[in-house]
Design brief:
- The structure is a homodimer.
- The longest helix of chain A has 24 residues, at 178-201.
- Chain A contains twelve helices and 17 strands.
- In chain A, helix 5 (110-123) packs parallel to helix 6 (147-158).
- Helix content of chain A is 31%, strand content 23%.
- At the A-B interface, helix 5, strand 10 and helix 10 of A face helix 5, strand 10 and helix 10 of B.
Chain lengths: 375, 375
C-alpha cells in the first residue's frame, strides 16, 4: 500500500530507522561487554521484540504481567517484570514460572520481600527477585547505603530467591548535555554496583546487576560491575530523546500519519484528523529546550516542515500552526486532503494509542504489525 | 467478584452513578424540548450506549468512522460523525449509508463541501452534511455571519445533501461559574441558530440545528431554534467537570482501581501500580482552580482521601502524595497491598487506556463491559 491508501490517523514505523536503532544499541552494549535486556513496554509488539532478540538481546524487560504472558506465549522466556510486586500479583507470577517462564520480579521494601519469601516457601516455587535501588531519587528503590537494602536481601535470601539488584535512572531525562548524561550514567552504574557490593560483603548473593534507561545506556563510558542494561524507547526514539541529545531527528522511527481536514485561515491553523487520542496527551517536550507542542509536523515523506508543530489537540482534532504565527496562506500550503506525518513527543505514549503499526519500507507499507494493550 | 479479586490497574464504573448521569442529562434535554444525541467517544462501549438509547437518546455522535461501524453493527443507525470530512474518508462513509446507516457528516470549508457534493453526484449516494459553525473560536467551523457559510450551503444543496448546522462550544471548558456557563450556552445557541437563519434566508434548507458540550448542555436555560444537543463526558463525569462546576464528586462514575506497591517514606510518597498508561497523560485540571495532578486518590469504597492526589506518574508507576507534604507515616497509612481508587482528570482520556470496564454495583463487580479503540 502507498500512504494515501492508509486510513488516517495511523501509526507508521520506518523499518530502516527501527533496524538502525536496534543495531546501534546492541552494538554499543556488545562493546561495553554487557547483556542488553530491551524494555518491550515501548512497542508491545512481538515482531519488534523478535528483531531485538535476533540482534542479540538476552531476555526482555516488561512493565506488566500481561506483557510477560504475551511475550512468553510468543516464545521469549527470560523476562524481568520491572515494577514493584504487590502480594496480589504473586500467584500470576508463580503460574508463569510453573509454566517454564524464567520470570524475575523486583522489590524495594521489606513488606513486599516478606510476602514474596513467604509465598515462595508456602508454594514451593522460586521467584528470583532483584532489589530495586534508588540511584537518583526520581521514583522507587532503596538507597545503596541503607540498612533496608541488607534487610530486604536477608529476607529474600532466606527463601533462596535473591537474584541481584536493579535500578532505572529515570532522572537522566532532565539532562541535555553529553557531559551531564555521562555523569548521570556513571552515577547510575556506581550506586547500583555499590549496592551489589554491600550485599556481597554481607554474605548475600548478587548474581545480577541491572541498570538502564535509554539516555544513560547511550552515554555510559564504562559499565564495570554491571551485568545487563535495560532500555526501551531507543527502539523508536522520539522528540524528548532528540531534545536530550541521544538521537537525531532522522532516527525517530515512529510517526502518526494524518490528513488535513480544514483550516482557520486568520489564525494560520491547519486542522488534522490526529488529535490527542492519536498522539497521546504526553507533553514531554514542554519543559525541554525545544517545546514541540504535541509533535513535529513532517511531510508525507517524513521530512520535517521547519517551524510547524501540532500546537494543540482535542480528542480527534490536531491544530497545526507555525511557530512564527500566521505568516502564510495555510490553506494553500496545506490544502484539505494533504497527508502529513507527526513525530511524537514520547513514543511509548503515542504508540499505546494504536492497535497496530503500519510498517513502512521504501516508501510503501507492506505489512502491519500488531500491538497489544491493557493489563 | 469483590474488588480484591480484580487485577490492578482496572477501570471501575459505578453503575449507580452512571445511570444517574444518563438520567440527569436526558431529563434535562426532555425538559428543554430537544433531542439528545450522546457523544459515544467518551465510553466507546456498546452496552453503555444502549443505556443511553433506552433512556431516550435519539441517535449518537461519533468521533471516528470506526465508532460508526462498531455502533452501526450493534444496531444503532442514526449516527453523526462530528469531525471534518476529508475526501479520503468519503468511500467508507458512503459504504455505511449504502448498508442502511443513517450517517450524517460535517464540513466547514468549500473544498470539503465540493468533494462531498461531487462524490455524492458521481456515486449516486446521499451523505447528509451539517455545516460546522464556529461559535467560540476554539477550533473548527465557519463564522455564522461569513460569506463562506452560504457558499458551503449552496455547494452542499446542489447535491441535495445540506442537512443543517452544528457547533461544539469547547471553549466552555474555560468557564467556572454558573453565570459564565449559562452565557456561554446562550452564545453557542444563538450563534448556531443565527447560522441556520442565514441559510434559510438564502433559500437553503436547514433541518437540523445541533449544538453541545457537557458544560453548556447542563447550563442552557433555553434552546429555542435548536433541534438536538450533543454531549459526551457527562456519562462518566470527571475532575475537570467537577472544577467547572457541572458535577459533584459523587457523580464521577469512572475511577482506576490500583494497588500500593511501595513508598518513599521521607518524601511521603506511596507508589501504586497505576501510572500514566492507566490514567492517561491528561493534565486537564492543571490550569483550573484545583489541580489534581493525575487524579484524586480515594479509598477502595470510592471515598476521597482528602488532600491525597497522584502527584506524578511514569508509565506503570503512580506517585501519590499529600498536598501538605510528608506529614504522616505513609507506609502505615497506605501499606503495601492497599487497594485505592483514582478519579481521573478527563474520563475520555483515561477510559481510552482500558479494553474493558469493571461494572461495579453494590460494592461488587458482576460483569465487565467491553471498550474498543483505534481507527
Amino acid at each position: 500500500m502507498t500512504l494515501d491508501q492508509i486510513s488516517t490517523p495511523a501509526a507508521l514505523v520506518d523499518m530502516s530507522a527501527l533496524r538502525g536503532n536496534i543495531a546501534r544499541m546492541q552494538t554499543r552494549m556488545n562493546a561495553l561487554g554487557v547483556a542488553l535486556r530491551p524494555h518491550v513496554k515501548t512497542a508491545k509488539s512481538v515482531p519488534i521484540a523478535a528483531l531485538q532478540m535476533e540482534a542479540g538481546a538476552r531476555g526482555i524487560t516488561v512493565s506488566t504481567l500481561k506483557e510477560a504472558e504475551h511475550f512468553f506465549a510468543a516464545g521469549i522466556s527470560d523476562i524481568l517484570y520491572a515494577v514493584g510486586m504487590p502480594p496480589s500479583k504473586l500467584r500470576q507470577a508463580a503460574s508463569l514460572v510453573q509454566r517454564g517462564c524464567a520470570l524475575k520480579i523486583i522489590a524495594d521494601n521489606a513488606d513486599s520481600a516478606r510476602a514474596i519469601a513467604q509465598f515462595c516457601s508456602e508454594n514451593a516455587v522460586k521467584l528470583p527477585t532483584l532489589i530495586e535501588i534508588d540511584t537518583d531519587g526520581h521514583r522507587a528503590g532503596v538507597l545503596p547505603e541503607s540498612e533496608e537494602l541488607l534487610a530486604i536481601g536477608r529476607i529474600l535470601h532466606s527463601a533462596g530467591v535473591l537474584h541481584g539488584v536493579m535500578t532505572h535512572a529515570g532522572g537522566s531525562y532532565a539532562c541535555s548535555t553529553p557531559e551531564a548524561l555521562a555523569a548521570f550514567a556513571e552515577q547510575e552504574r556506581s550506586r547500583c554496583v555499590r549496592a551489589a557490593q554491600r550485599l556481597r560483603e554481607a554474605g548475600l548473593p548478587c548474581a545480577c546487576v541491572s541498570v538502564g534507561s535509554t539516555p544513560t545506556a547511550l552515554s555510559a563510558t564504562q559499565l564495570d560491575g554491571v551485568t545487563e542494561v535495560r532500555a526501551g524507547v531507543y527502539v523508536f526514539f522520539d522528540l524528548v530523546m532528540q531534545n536530550i541529545g541521544v538521537c537525531s531527528n532522522r532516527e525517530i522511527a515512529l510517526s502518526v500519519l494524518t490528513t488535513v481536514i480544514g483550516h482557520q485561515k486568520d489564525k494560520g491553523w491547519a486542522l488534522v484528523d490526529a488529535g490527542w487520542m492519536a498522539m497521546s496527551r504526553d507533553r514531554g517536550t514542554q519543559r525541554q529546550a525545544c517545546d514541540f507542542g504535541y509533535g513535529q509536523v513532517c511531510d508525507a515523506q517524513g521530512q520535517p516542515l521547519e517551524g510547524w508543530i501540532m500546537e494543540s489537540a482535542n480528542q480527534e482534532h490536531g491544530i497545526l500552526a507555525h511557530r512564527a504565527g500566521a505568516t502564510a496562506d495555510v490553506a494553500q500550503l496545506l490544502p484539505v486532503g494533504t497527508l502529513l506525518r507527526i513525530q511524537p513527543n514520547h513514543a511509548c505514549a503515542t504508540s499505546a494509542q494504536f492497535p497496530e503499526y503500519q510498517m513502512l519500507e521504501a516508501g510503501a507499507v507492506k505489512t502491519s504489525w500488531p500491538r497489544f494493550y491493557g493489563w
